[in-house]
């Protein structure tokens, strides 16, 4: 082959290769163009989808009505032709079953078939709900396509909805409401991309947010309405203030007019009082309390007085309390509420008036009792005083008989007065119990001894059992215990005509520190009907009117006994049968007193005194001359001179011109009474200002005693008085070792027998009344050992005040017995105790006194009167 042929052949190959390259280049260029066009279409589709979803979301966030918002947003998506059909299905759960509630869709073509199928075909609805339950709910996003392998239910549902491919996205609300967004395509060629899925997920999130916002708003509104209804239903006014004291909420009770209530929101109390034409002070008070609550962050309560349009006064109890933000610790708002307390205020005023009336009634009662006591005791003082004086004279048998009747009657009347006063003290809570060492064996025997003459007069048998149980002293009030026993035994004697009286004591429980025991008083008397047993302890109550008329009495005795027993934390019981008898049982628990080795004999058997007041001048101020006559007769018998004035003014004038050693001052006198006179005397120059003044009055209430002492008086004795008590008081103020009578020429010392006692004073005082002297001696034998034992016990503390008290009482008893040596020892013990000179010296002095007392007791037990 020629060179030309070779060149031609090579050229042909190059031409062919060039053509082949051009063909490939054209093909690649076409492919590149096609790809570019596809990318451009995809970008356009993405932009269109983004624009559509953005518009749909804008509607969701702007529109408040949920149904309108969802339908409009679906329509925006449908019109944008991002899919052949866009649908939103609402489902709800009823009794665990899922049901189709309603739906809305928008398609590029006619969509009537879907509406018909889902609204008119129940089975189709059920299949669709089952499809959603199994394949959609609980998932994020689900693809479906006929090209892919699907279950029969999926294929059946896609066939029913006439779609070839779709993406379904669920949106839920509180597991009750469900929304399913369906993006559907009728063409099988459409392919999904991650970008489109993300855009659709964003739309689904917007749908869910709109649903939640809608239902939350409903819930919040429902909650708001609920609480507002609750607050509006509260029967007290309720308001809420912001931090500037502006009203945020007002309920109808606070402001009834709804227009005013609405107007007041955002305003304050100054606006309110101005609008209502009320005093500005109301707003000032509220603002002051508000500022304090706001500053101190603590609630406050205050009362507000308002005047209504009708001129009526209202009282409102208001309370403000702060609501504090925990994070910033600042007051976010203040809640105030008010209660109408007008009725309560009126009730309080009525109660105050009632209390004032009750107190006035009580005051009048006290005044009546004081006056009654004074008016009765004044003549009683005369009667009993004359009886004491007559007992000193020589009497024949008939006179003695009449005098005893007079004495018993006057003492009975005095007993009734004392019972009434005791009841008054109990009612007022002014009955005070004292505690001192008591030997119950001695106390019970003393009571029995006192009542034996009455038992003997009625020919009754007497039995006393169980006194040996009292081995120790106990702390109790001996006066009130004696009163209880006297009442019970006296009643037994009173209501028993034949048979016997028995007193029996039993130990119930005893420990090292306490003794619980009972005392039974049993009789064979008239008895008490069963239906009356619960009433006999009531004041002024007796078993029957016949009992009162036949036996007399006030019906106060058992009432006082019950009150006293209760005050001692004891118990009283009664058993009774008519015409068989009664048993009264009292039970006590008392603290035991540790007993030292006996220093003297404590066996038992009552007081002696002698003429010691010779040379003393005593001024008696009393407007009743009979009182002067009695006092003069009694006191002059002790050797003192008795001077007399009729009122306080005369007493002051006499004192200014004369010397006296002591004044006995009646409280109720004309012109200047005893209280005023005492105050004036205390303002005089010394030594007259310091003269002892003793109230001698018929007013026996505790308040009267307090009045006397507060006015400056030194002591107090109630009329009618016992001469022995009067002597003890006079002795206390006149016979102190450092004092001497103003005009005393010589000491009046009683003659002293070898045994150390002298009963001459008691004989002179009583007119040689053997019974009286024996009672006084027995009382001394009973009481002195207890007093001496108490002084030794008080050394353990030491309790100097107790030693002084007991020695003061003991020295008087020793004086009654005419035992000057023992009395002087006891005076020394009293002075040592007052000066707190130490236990060693006191103990030595007490041992000497106790030794002397032992000898005296031994001799007194053998004395013959």
What layout of secondary structure does this protein have?
Blueprint lengths: L2 H60 L3 H14 L5 E10 L2 E11 L4 H9 L1 H14 L6 E4 L6 H10 L3 E9 L3 E9 L8 H40 L3 E6 L4 E4 L7 H7 L4 H8 L3 H17 L3 E8 L5 E13 L4 E11 L1 H50 L5 H31 L8 E3 L1 H18 L3 E5 L7 E4 L1 H17 L5 E11 L3 E10 L21 H7 L5 H11 L3 E7 L3 E13 L23 E5 L3 H12 L4 E5 L2 H10 L4 E4 L8 H8 L11 E5 L4 H10 L3 E4 L4 H12 L25 H7 L3 H25 L5 H17 L3 H15 L4 H22 L5
Parallel strand pairs: 12-14, 18-19, 18-20, 20-21, 21-22
Antiparallel strand pairs: 1-2, 1-5, 3-4, 4-5, 6-7, 6-10, 8-9, 9-10, 11-13, 13-17, 14-15, 15-17, 16-17
Helix pairs in contact: 1-2, 1-6, 3-4, 4-5, 8-9, 10-11, 10-16, 11-15, 12-13, 13-15, 17-18, 22-23, 22-25, 23-24, 24-25
Overview of this protein structure:
Helix 11 packs across helix 15 (557-567). The chain contains 25 helices and 22 strands. The longest helix is centred in the N-terminal third of the chain and has 60 residues, at 3-62. Helix content is 52%, strand content 19%. Helix 19 (702-711) links the parallel strand 21 (693-697) and strand 22 (715-718). Strands 11, 12, 13, 14, 15, 16 and 17 form a 7-stranded mixed sheet that branches. Strands 2-1-5-4-3 form a 5-stranded antiparallel sheet, with helices on both faces. A 5-stranded antiparallel sheet has the order 7-6-10-9-8, with helices on both faces. With 865 residues, the chain is an alpha+beta fold.
* Helical coverage, percent range: 40-55%
End-to-end CA span: 197 Å
Mean pLDDT: 77
Structural class: alpha+beta
Query: Spans of 5+ residues with little confidence (pLDDT < 50)?
Result: 543-554, 595-609, 737-755
Described by strand count, sense and barrel closure, the largest sheet is: 7 strands, mixed
Number of helices: 25
Coarse morphology: elongated
Strand content: 15-25%
Q: Supply Rg.
A: 56 Å
Number of strands: 22
């Amino acid at each position: 082959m020629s060179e030309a042929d070779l060149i031609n052949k090579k050229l042909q190959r190059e031409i062919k290769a060039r053509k082949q390259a051009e063909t490939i280049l054209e093909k690649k260029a076409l492919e590149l163009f096609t790809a570019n066009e596809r990318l451009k279409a995809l970008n356009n589709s993405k932009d269109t989808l983004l624009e559509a979803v953005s518009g749909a979301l804008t509607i969701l966030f702007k529109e408040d009505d949920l149904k309108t918002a969802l339908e409009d947003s679906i329509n925006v998506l449908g019109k944008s032709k991002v899919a052949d059909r866009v649908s939103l299905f609402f489902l709800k759960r009823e009794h665990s079953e899922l049901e189709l509630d309603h739906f809305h869709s928008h398609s590029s073509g006619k969509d009537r078939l879907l509406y018909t199928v889902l609204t008119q075909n129940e089975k189709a609805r059920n299949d669709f709900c089952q499809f959603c339950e199994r394949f959609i709910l609980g998932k994020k996003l689900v693809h479906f396509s006929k090209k892919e392998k699907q279950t029969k239910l999926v294929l059946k549902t896609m066939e029913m909805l006439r779609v070839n491919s779709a993406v379904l996205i669920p949106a839920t609300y509180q597991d009750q409401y469900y929304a399913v967004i369906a993006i559907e395509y009728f063409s099988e060629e459409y392919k999904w991309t991650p970008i489109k899925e993300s855009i659709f997920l964003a739309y689904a999130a917007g749908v869910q947010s709109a649903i939640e916002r809608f239902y939350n708003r409903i819930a919040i509104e429902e909650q708001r309405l609920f609480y507002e209804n609750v607050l509006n239903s509260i029967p007290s006014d309720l308001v809420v203030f912001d931090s500037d004291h502006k009203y945020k909420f007002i309920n109808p009770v606070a402001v009834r007019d709804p227009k005013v209530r609405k107007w007041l929101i955002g305003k304050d109390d100054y606006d309110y009082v101005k609008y209502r034409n009320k005093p500005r002070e109301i707003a000032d008070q509220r603002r002051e309390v508000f500022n304090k609550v706001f500053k101190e962050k603590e609630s406050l309560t205050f009362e507000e007085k308002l005047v209504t349009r009708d001129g009526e006064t209202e009282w409102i109890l208001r309370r403000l309390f702060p609501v504090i933000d925990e994070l910033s610790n600042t007051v976010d708002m203040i809640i105030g509420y008010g209660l109408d307390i007008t009725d309560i205020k009126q009730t309080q005023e009525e109660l105050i008036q009632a209390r004032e009336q009750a107190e006035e009634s009580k005051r009048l009662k006290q005044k009546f009792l004081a006056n009654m006591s004074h008016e009765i005791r004044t003549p009683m003082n005369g009667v009993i005083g004359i009886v004491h004086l007559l007992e000193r004279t020589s009497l024949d048998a008939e006179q003695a008989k009449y005098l005893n009747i007079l004495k018993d009657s006057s003492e009975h009347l005095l007993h009734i007065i004392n019972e009434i006063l005791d009841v008054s003290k109990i009612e007022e809570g002014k009955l005070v119990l004292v505690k001192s060492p008591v030997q119950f064996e001695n106390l019970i025997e003393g009571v029995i001894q006192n009542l034996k003459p009455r038992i003997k007069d009625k020919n009754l048998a007497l039995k006393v059992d169980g006194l040996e149980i009292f081995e120790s002293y106990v702390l109790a009030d001996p006066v009130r215990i004696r009163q209880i026993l006297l009442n019970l035994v006296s009643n037994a004697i009173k209501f028993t005509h034949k048979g016997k009286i028995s007193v029996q004591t039993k130990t119930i429980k005893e420990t090292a520190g306490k003794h619980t025991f009972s005392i039974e008083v049993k009789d064979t008397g008239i008895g008490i009907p069963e239906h009356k047993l619960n009433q006999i302890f009531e004041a002024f109550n007796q078993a029957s009117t016949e009992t009162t008329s036949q036996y007399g009495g006030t019906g106060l005795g058992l009432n006082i006994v019950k009150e006293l027993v209760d005050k001692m934390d004891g118990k009283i019981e009664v058993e009774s049968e008519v015409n068989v008898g009664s048993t009264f049982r009292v039970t006590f628990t008392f603290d035991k007193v540790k007993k030292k080795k006996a220093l003297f004999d404590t066996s038992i058997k009552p007081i002696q005194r002698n003429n010691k007041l010779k040379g003393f001048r005593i001024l008696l101020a009393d407007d009743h001359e009979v009182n002067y006559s009695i006092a003069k007769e009694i006191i002059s018998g002790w050797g003192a001179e008795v001077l007399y004035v009729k009122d306080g003014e005369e007493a002051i004038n006499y004192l200014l011109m004369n010397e006296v050693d002591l004044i006995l001052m009646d409280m109720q006198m004309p012109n200047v009474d005893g209280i005023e006179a005492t105050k004036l005397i205390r303002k005089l120059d010394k030594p007259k200002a310091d003269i002892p003044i003793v109230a001698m009055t018929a007013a026996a209430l505790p308040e009267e005693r307090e009045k006397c002492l507060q006015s400056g008086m030194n002591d107090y004795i109630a009329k009618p008085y016992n001469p022995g008590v009067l002597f003890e008081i006079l002795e206390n103020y006149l016979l102190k070792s450092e004092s001497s009578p103003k005009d005393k020429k010589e000491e009046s010392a009683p003659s002293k027998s070898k045994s150390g006692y002298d009963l001459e004073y008691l004989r002179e005082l009583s007119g040689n009344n053997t019974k009286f002297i024996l009672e006084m001696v027995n009382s001394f034998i009973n009481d002195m050992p207890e007093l001496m034992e108490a002084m030794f016990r008080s050394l353990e503390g030491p309790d100097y005040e107790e030693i002084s008290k007991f020695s003061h009482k003991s020295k008087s008893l020793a004086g009654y017995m005419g035992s000057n040596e023992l009395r002087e020892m006891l005076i020394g013990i009293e002075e040592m105790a007052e000066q707190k000179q130490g236990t060693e010296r006191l103990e030595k002095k007490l041992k000497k006194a106790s030794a002397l007392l032992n000898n005296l007791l031994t001799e007194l037990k053998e004395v013959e009167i």
